[in-house]
């Protein structure tokens, strides 16, 4: 099993969720986060004063999938989240040792 974490632009969330749904992925956790990479921040004007916004709003998706589904998930996220502009985000894939569904006690593949 693998955990896929994707940091994407907020307005791309619905497109990504739809793309994952089309390949049979329905469960995920979504968090509103802030951060920056190469994109850095940007300057905004508020009541006549300029200030720097260092952390930009992003959305973080987390999903745990069987090894067989990893490449399809990555492809779906990449295709649907991509704008071609700086700040499109990143996808991280890590190994998951064990999953337990609290309600039933099911473990691993049965729990996801």
From TrEMBL:
Question: SUPFAM superfamilies given for it?
Answer: GlnB-like
Q: Name one Pfam family in it.
A: P-II
- Any single Gene Ontology cellular-component annotation: cytosol
User: What are the GO BP annotations of this UniProt entry?
Assistant: regulation of nitrogen utilization
The entry lists its GO molecular-function terms as: ATP binding; enzyme regulator activity
The organism's superkingdom is given as Bacteria
Instruction: Report keywords, A-Z.
Output: Nucleotide-binding, Phosphoprotein, Transcription, Transcription regulation
Against InterPro entries, the record matches this protein to: N-reg_PII, N-reg_PII-like_a/b, N-reg_PII/ATP_PRibTrfase_C, N-reg_PII_CS, N-reg_PII_urydylation_site
PTM O-UMP-tyrosine: list the residues: 51
PANTHER family in the cross-refs: NITROGEN REGULATORY PROTEIN P-II (PTHR30115), NITROGEN REGULATORY PROTEIN P-II HOMOLOG (PTHR30115:SF11)
Q: How does it assemble?
A: Homotrimer.
Spell out the family assignment given in the record's similarity comment.
Answer: Belongs to the P(II) protein family.
Q: What is this protein called?
A: Nitrogen regulatory protein P-II 1
According to its UniProt entry, this protein's organism is Tolumonas osonensis
The record lists the lineage as: Bacteria, Pseudomonadati, Pseudomonadota, Gammaproteobacteria, Aeromonadales
